[in-house]
Write a structure and sequence with these properties.
Length: 125
């Protein structure tokens, strides 16, 4: 499979639809936390959006943690900043390459399924 040079992702990201109640928060190495809105999600990463008055100043390759909460599932996921554009930050989840992260991957998988179901319901209307 070939990808063009503009392709940043390893796989499909599901867009988070309004009303899903997916809460997220980004925590950086300085232990500062920022509430965020998850715009899309996959097992490999996510795109977060911050309110205009609470945008973190991050660097590419900076290590961060993302808290994702959806219904009864809640998990902190280690990540790496891939890009920041204004109030949006793209985060890659490299830890899923390790077998020790299987329980985290299962939680992310359940959250991702909820995101996909929400998207399908919205587009079925």
């Amino acid at each position: 499979m070939t990808t063009n040079s503009k392709e940043r992702r390893d796989g499909f990201r599901a867009r988070v639809v309004e009303g899903l109640n997916l809460d997220s928060e980004l925590r950086c190495s300085k232990n500062k936390a920022w509430p965020s809105k998850t715009l899309n999600l996959s097992l490999n990463g996510c795109l977060l959006e911050f309110s205009k008055d609470q945008v973190p100043s991050l660097h590419v390759d900076e290590k961060v943690s993302i808290k994702l909460c959806c219904q009864e599932d809640s998990v902190w996921v280690p990540g790496v900043v891939r890009h920041q554009r204004a109030d949006r930050v793209g985060v890659h989840f490299p830890e899923f390459m390790h077998a020790s992260a299987k329980s985290t991957e299962q939680i992310i998988f359940r959250i991702l399924r909820a995101v996909e179901r929400g998207w399908l319901r919205q587009n079925a209307k």
